[in-house]
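Technical note accompanying the year-one report. For the benefit of new consortium partners, we illustrate the data format agreed upon in the data management plan: each record pairs a sequence with a structure-token string. No post-processing was applied to the example shown here.
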Amino acid sequence: MTSTTQRPFPNRYISILVVAGLAVALFIFFRPGNASSHLNGKADRQPVHDFTVSTLAGKQWQLSTHKGQVVLINIFATWCPPCNAEMPNLVKLSTEYAAKGVETMALSVDEGGPDLVRKFVDKYQIPFPVALADASNPITSGVTGIPVTLLIDREGKSASMYVGMISEEAVRHDLDGLLAEK
């Protein structure tokens, strides 16, 4: 007669390790500030391609008309949890920094049409221009994940790109840095 003893390690501990690993991965991915929070050096900045979009309000918004201003562009979707989580901070920052010369605008990559995005704008009381992005837009053409936030310096060059949910503190720090540049 042989005795059968269970080995305590494999099933139970592997399950615990898998769950713990998933929890850590989700924390890293969704925590605010997971994105880069530094500005590119002035010599390393590349010009951002000019583009024009029609906003949900029916007005034309063109990047080149904002040369001389710091520009924050947020690329989002209404169904994206991190996009929803960061939008109140973007609204707060845009309101505070508009008086300091920062232009904020958002591009939605939603495919549900303008009415879906207008509901999102109303929900968050977004005060800045919002437009639907299309495949020909040079800003969104290379985006593979959202949210993405771009900071463009006064010369129209890419100063920083955050991929993932941003923290208010990181963006505030970078906006202050850009505004201090002469």
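Partners are asked to follow this layout when depositing records. The chain has a mean pLDDT of 83.
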